[in-house]
Amino acid sequence: xxxxxxxxxxxxxxxxxxxxxxxxxxxxxxxxxxxxxxxxxxxxxxxxxxxxxxxxxxxxxxxxxxxxxxxxxxxxxxxxxxxxxxxxxxxxxxxxxxxxxxxxxxxxxxxxxxxxxxxxxxxxxxxxxxxxxxxxxxxxxxxxxxxxxxxxxxxxxxxxxxxxxxxxxxxxxxxxxxxxxxxxxxxxxxxxxxxxxxxxxxxxxxxxxxxxx
Length: 213
Hints:
Blueprint: H1 3-23, H2 28-35, E1 38-40, E2 45-50, E3 53-58, E4 64-66, H3 75-87, E5 97-98, H4 106-125, H5 129-138, E6 142-144, E7 149-156, E8 159-166, E9 175-181, H6 190-211
Helix pairs in contact: 1-3, 4-6, 5-6
């Protein structure tokens, strides 16, 4: 038995259980209004779309499943979905971008976000623009005029990110930026948004390297 893995899973489970205890106290109709996520009153469940995939959230239990009702083993993504449903304020996208440092608390967590997300993005795709393009377009992202190549995409309902890349050359190393729609703080706090960036990069990396040699 991998004791470290067991302890890590137990640690990840604690915030999920905590957010389940909060979630049950919220009005599902209000949650649906504030997120735009469909709520089926007959089945007592929300359908939450995250980067092109549907997740089922049972109410009031807070149990979360894939769209085929199979179990999700990783607790952090389930915690993030619950936090989104709990904290959403119903603010529509503004089409104006902000940086992570513009998010309340972003300065405090910026060093973590820089390494965990921005540096990871340019190290993964700075020399694989074709893979970057393929992955973002496969999830329906919109090409925007920033950097050498950039795409805006919906991470979860009403929450948009923009990934920007500058290619490297003989003199310059690749670089990147991650921008959020200005409404993002009305759905996630700074700590959550670092995980949003992390999850997003993980998903497009899987798409790019599973499909592009």
